[in-house]
Amino acid sequence: KVDQVFFSFRGQQLRYNFVSHLSDAFQRNEIKFFIDKDVKKGQDLKNLFVRIEESSIALAIFSTRYPDSRWCMDELVKMKKLVDQGNLLVIPIFYKVKAKDARNPKCSSEFGRNFWKLAESVSSTSRKYQIAHWLEALHYKKRVILQHRKLLQ
């Protein structure tokens, strides 16, 4: 394991504003981190999963567009699995999103509408399985925060 922070975020929405400021602050304070800036759209997620596994902390930066990315949602599922194994600390950050909207995506919020739009695009063969894992990972955040408090005490 590397003492590194993995950033999970919706690139189109946050890469050149919030995340760039955050990464600048990390660099100034000599904190190692990984951002998928060199990963091309459509590449296999296995390389990102390896980077998540190598990290000791992950920042899940939830924005309104986070759930319209299958990559983001699959990263979140992977992060949840690593938390379950005790191998990763996940810190959720809610960027212009209410935590309750991320935990329970409904069509009444932009986050929820984007989630369900992505869910509708999933092929019917894997649809129920994939959506269930995404929802479980989104809902899981509350318990992850509680686990973090125990680890930090």
Automatic annotation (TrEMBL):
Keywords: NAD. Pfam families: TIR. SMART domains: TIR. It comes from the Eukaryota. GO terms for biological process: signal transduction. Residues 1-152 form the TIR domain. The keyword Oxidoreductase does not apply. This is TIR domain-containing protein.
